[in-house]
Amino acid sequence: MTAQLESDAQLEIGHVLFMDIVGFSKLLVDEQSDCSHRLNQLVRDTEQFRTEAPVRCAMEIARALKGSSFGLRMGIHSGPVNKVSDVNDRSNLTGTGINMAQRVMDCGDAGHILLSKRVTEDLEQHSKWRPRLHYLGAFEVKHGVKIDIVNLYTDDVGNPALPQKLKSTTAARPRFQKPMIAAAAIMAIGLAGWWLFAHRASRDSTAVAASEKSVAIFPFKPVSSQNRDEVLENGMADTLIAKLSTIAEIIIPSLSSAQKYNEQEHDVVAAGRLLRVRSVLEGTLQRVADRIRVTARLIDVRDGHSLWSDTFDEKFTDVFAVEDAIAQKVASALALRLNAEDRQRLTKRYTDNTDAYQLYLKGRFYWNKYTEEGWRKSIEFFKQATEKDPNYALAYAGIADSYSLLGEVGIVSPKEIFPQARLYAEKALKLDDKLAEAHLSLGIVKLFYDWDPPAAEPELARARELNPSDPQVHHFYGHYLEFVGQLPEATAELKRGVDLDPTNLIVNAEYGWTFYIRRQTDEAIAQYRKTLELDPSFVLGSVWIAQALEQKQMYAEALAELERARKIDNWSWIVAEIGCVNAFLGKRDEARKIIAELTERATREYIDETLIVYIFAALGDKDQAFTWMEKGYQSRASNLPWLVMEPKFDPLRSDPRFGQFVRRIGLSVKSH
Q1: Among 224-233, 350-359, 478-487, 634-643, which stretch is predicted with the lowest mean pLDDT?
Q2: How far is Cα 138 from Cα 159, in angstroms, rounded to an integer?
Q3: Hey, which of 163-177, 519-533, 614-628 has the most confident mean pLDDT?
Q4: Which helix H or strand E contains 373, and what residues bound it?
Q5: Average pLDDT over residues 398-419
Q6: How far apart are the C-alpha atoms of 597 and 615, rounded to whole Å?
Q7: How many helical (H) and strand (E) elements, i.e. helices and strands, does the chain have?
Q8: Longest pairwise C-alpha distance within the chain
Q9: Contacts of 261 (CB under 8 A, 6+ apart)
Q10: Of 54, 74, 77, 52, the residue nearest 65 (C-alpha)
Q11: How high does pLDDT run on average in the chain?
Q12: What per-residue confidence (pLDDT) applies to 330?
């Protein structure tokens, strides 16, 4: 019987509207019938197949019931649903789409229309919906699942109050009364049928449209907690991403994005939908002594069926062959068109030394943490890898990558770090001139240290050519376009990066930055808010949204955002922005105290002089601003070249010294 049910199940993606009449179980039987009948009448003619359909339905129901005694709460989620038949052969629905919609709904009180973030991501692309969406945060619900909740309300519908259950993130998990479960489930099943978004693929089709050639590769999971190797579990996924992303027609989210959503969702199909891919690669890995056992499975997220699966049981020395085989099978299952060069890249091995390889994976493990400490640790392991194999070009590229990022983000002295990045990038390219990572690092050095965009462009373009699916190559090529004044083109380039990896925090924030420097402040703020919804603790997003709020003279809002970020990290850029806001508010003494604080910190750590320029410019102290610009010039401050387009330099642009300074560093003053 179980087998029959499984074979009959049809997995589809449903836009699910789940309802609950608060206090339903206290009503008399005839009152319950009247309630159900009235709701059914309201949604009788609302069949549409798009994300906003259940949201429109919810708003219409809320309007129709306005002023009535109905205490209705609603929850909306998009996710997998199964069409099944019950024992009486009646059509029904099950699946995580139903379950999650119910959990979203249960967070609310009477009058609430709550949405999952998955639904919101589609709606917020439209200006008519964005003002109605109010992000509440991430909360733990039934079975320990964490979901992001968004409250939908306008002046006439919805409930703007914070739900009681969400007033504390440590509140008890929601509980249901049994009579209420039955009533809510019946209504949800009836409505979910209306909002079923069918995307079932033909299993007979051998062709895959170019837009469908996207795959999320999740870290491999341990067979058991004993003898697990987390570095290898993440490292094998990272290696497969690196191999497959060299193919132009495939889209692969970064490992950090895959990790984030894999941790949030127990269902890999649901995680794949959140990552906006058509397939996911998952598997298990176990290493015992000198042997490694790997299972891998490629799944179509549209209907959950397996595109390919296999098991490998080999000596650990054959780990490279296992990775090559998986990469080739994935490419074949996705019907990728490979030329001879693609095939060569797909199976290219940068070392045959397993000790060096394991050290390299440790380096990548720490690099992916995307922190100063992580990058510094990664350098140690990459260097150890090159000691095991002096011809390990990829490890040299890893060293260059870490050094260049430490310099570019402005947390280490440029004169200390960028020459090291150049040295190792050139060493990697001498061993292998087709390493995208090394070309990217060298391009970053030439752009942010040499201040030489024409010399940086060939390196960045080559990196983009060699690894077109890496959002970071579009990120930094976008910076090149910004430096040469091609701002609309830069926006398009960063948008490509976001399309490749929609949940990548850095690329999302940088996309917002392109609007900021074009003085399209509202668009910048909207993009920064979207970025912070992905991770409210992302302090760079807080800094940049504060900068944009400053441009709109929304100083109180900017200061609140910065103070929230400072509780997370006392980063010098956050402190400097607080100084700028105080200057704009006329709190000159407070602003100068911030300058003194940063100057004192500069005796103990590297502080980019550009940050102090920002505050003096906000104070209107042009002489001091130009004095600190000169100091930044002498130290090769990596943020200084942004003066060409950064709005914070606007108070200085009319001064003749500004144009002279820009030409002195080899750039040209271009209009924004």
Answers
A1: 224-233
A2: 19
A3: 614-628
A4: helix 372-388
A5: 90
A6: 12
A7: 28, 12
A8: 84
A9: 216, 271, 274, 275, 503
A10: 74
A11: 81
A12: 85
Give the phi and the psi of residue 411 in degrees, each rounded to 5: -110, -5
Q: Compute the distance between CA of residue 16 and CA of residue 420 in angstroms, rounded to an integer.
A: 54
- Sorted by sequence, the CB contacts under 8 Å of residue 198 that are 6+ apart come out as 12, 13, 49
DSSP conformational letter for 71: -
Average of per-residue pLDDT across 154-173? 71
Q: CB count, 10 Å around CB of 124?
A: 20
Confidence of residue 180 (pLDDT cuts 50, 70, 90): very low
Residues 6+ apart with CB under 8 A from 43: 57, 61, 191, 194
Instruction: Please give the backbone phi and psi of residue 295, each rounded to the nearest 5 degrees, phi first.
Output: -115, 140
pLDDT at 88 over 50: no
pLDDT tens by residue, 524-549: 999 999 888 888 888 889 999 999 99
Residue ranges matching CATH 3.40.50.10070 in the chain:
210-349
Q: Name the 3-class secondary structure at 580.
A: helix
| CATH architecture, domain defined by 2-197 | 2-Layer Sandwich (3.30)
Residue count of the chain, please give it.
672
Rounded to an integer, the average pLDDT of 407-429 is: 92
Backbone angles phi, psi at 227, to 5 degrees: 60, 25
Q: At what angle do helices 230-244 and 255-264 cross, to 10 degrees?
A: 130
| Residue 434 buriedness (CB in 10 A; 0-12 / 13-18 / 19+) | middle
User: Considering the domain 210-349 in this protein, what is its CATH number?
Assistant: 3.40.50.10070
Tell me the fold of 354-468: 1.25.40
